Amino acid sequence: xxxxxxxLMAFACxxxxxLTNVCAIFVTHSSVGMGTIVGSAIFNIMIIVGVCPIVVAGxxxxxxxxxxxxxxxxxxxxxxLLAWALPVFTLFNSSVLFGMAFVYAIVxxxxxxxxxxxxxxxxxQLQRSI
Length: 130
Description:
Elements: H1 2-26, H2 33-55, H3 65-85, H4 91-115, H5 120-129
Helix pairs in contact: 1-2, 1-4, 3-4
């Protein structure tokens, strides 16, 4: 479930954007690619995080601390790698960024094995705070 949400659903949401940017870069030779991708990612994060509590019953979402820290760590790593890779993308830079997507998918897949399922006490505390 976590892997599907982190990889397949993300690709399904961003697949059309990826195709649009590939066409813009390679067909029309436009420089719209990077700004569109980064801007869209920031917009998607803000909208998804902002809307989810609105549509959930009670207005509060229970997010286990370990899952939050995992995704926060990978977000920070992705920002650092993007800053490292800019302004000119080489095959090596692109390969490192692409490879990190696979590392993230593997970590998400093995996360519950390594760190265990969310602690019941933590989930109960989150529910009481609602």
